[in-house]
Amino acid sequence: MLFFLTVIFACQLAGELLVVALGLPVPGPVAGMVLLFAGLVIRRGIPDDLARVGDGLLSNLSLLFVPAGVGVMLHIALIGEQAVAISVALVVSTLATVAVTALAMRLLGRGSGGGEG
């Protein structure tokens, strides 16, 4: 299992290096996830030990929100000053996400033959 935890962290590091080297406008961990996903697609499957490591990380994911919560409490006055802008950004980004997801489902559903058409 330590091997697969190392693989996950190596993909994150590779993503960080790729983003810095190429100046990409995405976070390094996202690029690392793409690299890990590409490796799993090439391998054509997820090893059982990698799935267990991933499940272990996901089961403790809530711990990663503690620093974000502390940051929110630290800057609550600034958040209060910018409440309208933050609210508009949240609503607009949520609507954009729903629209893009609906469009993707519509495009991907055309070839399956299971949709209404």
Please outline the helices and strands:
Elements (H helix, E strand, L loop, with lengths): L1 H21 L5 H16 L4 H12 L6 H9 L1 H6 L1 H27 L8
Describe the structure.
It comes from Polymorphum gilvum (strain LMG 25793 / CGMCC 1.9160 / SL003B-26A1). With 117 residues, this protein is mostly helical. It has 2 domains: 1-59; 66-110. 78% of the residues lie in helices and 0% in strands.
Brief overview, please?
It holds the Pfam family LrgA. This protein is mainly alpha-helical and 117 residues long.
Key structural traits:
6 helices, LrgA/CidA, about 120 residues, mainly alpha, hydrolase, hydrolase activity, cell membrane
Please state the average pLDDT score: 90
Residues in helices, as a percent range: over 70%
Q: State the end-to-end CA separation.
A: 45 Å
* Record field, number of beta strands: 0
Rg, alpha carbons: 19 Å
Quaternary status: single chain
Helices, by number, come to 6
Percentage of residues in strands: under 5%
Alpha-beta classification: mainly alpha
Q: Can you write the helix and strand succession as a string?
A: HHHHHH
The biggest beta sheet reads: none
Membrane topology: Multi-pass membrane protein
Organism: Polymorphum gilvum (strain LMG 25793 / CGMCC 1.9160 / SL003B-26A1)
Transmembrane segments: 31-46, 58-78, 84-108
Subcellular location: Cell membrane
